[in-house]
Design goal:
Blueprint lengths: L3 H15 L2 H8 L3 H15 L3 E4 L2 E4 L3 H18 L6 E2 L14 H7 L5 E4 L16 E3 L2 E8 L11 E6 L7 H18 L6 E2 L1
Helix pairs in contact: 1-2, 1-3, 1-4, 2-3
């Protein structure tokens, strides 16, 4: 029997991120039917009513239990290092896993994702101008990666940033991952002189 925290919860999280049992099967080296059985078993045991509606997998009940388990799971990931962290996004609209759009911030809040790279933040609060330093982004915190010229047809801003929960800002695994993301940005776009690196 598989462990709910170590085996079952990661499958639920990946289903929320990807919305696909076949993608989760590929990511976890399982077959699709095993992913389906495992997510139904965990949902039943915890009373989550975890199912797909409107194209997204979500728990429809017992959110307090799921939230507590996700907090424990996130603490385990943070303790294991940057390779265990769950994150979404890559430089300038290159999609990772599946585009989850506005849901990325929600998944960071719910501890499904440890951080997200947001391309062209839609709303910037006061204080973002010095985006080299962490700044408040609603109830989360953002760290600027790069500024680029705004295209006339572009909505949003000219700032790509990492967004995460404030309490994880000083975690060594998170800091290492942010450094890795910065290196990816630099490697991918070093030839573009109009970018302002932060």
């Amino acid at each position: 029997m598989r462990d709910i925290l170590l085996d079952g919860l990661p499958v639920l999280d990946l289903l929320e991120i990807t919305a696909s049992t076949s993608v989760v099967a590929a990511l976890t080296n399982c077959d699709q039917s095993s992913v389906s059985r495992l997510h139904r078993r965990v949902s039943d045991q915890l009373g989550l009513d975890f199912r797909k509606t409107n194209g997204h997998y979500r728990a429809h009940a017992n959110h307090a239990v799921l939230g507590s388990l996700r907090q424990a799971s996130q603490l385990l990931r943070l303790g294991r290092g940057q390779l265990q962290l769950q994150w979404q996004g890559t430089p300038r609209d290159v999609q990772a896993l599946q585009s989850i759009g506005d849901r990325a911030l929600e998944l960071v809040r719910e501890r499904v994702l440890d951080l997200a790279v947001i391309n062209g933040l839609d709303t910037l609060p006061p204080g973002w101008e010095d985006s080299r330093k962490p700044f408040a982004f609603f109830d989360l915190v953002a760290i600027g990666l790069v500024r680029y010229p705004i295209q006339p047809s572009c909505s949003g801003t000219n700032l790509d940033a990492v967004v995460l929960r404030r309490e994880h800002l000083e975690q060594p695994a998170v800091q290492a991952l942010i450094s890795q993301i910065r290196a990816i940005y630099l490697r991918e776009f070093a030839q573009l002189p109009e970018l302002a690196w932060l």
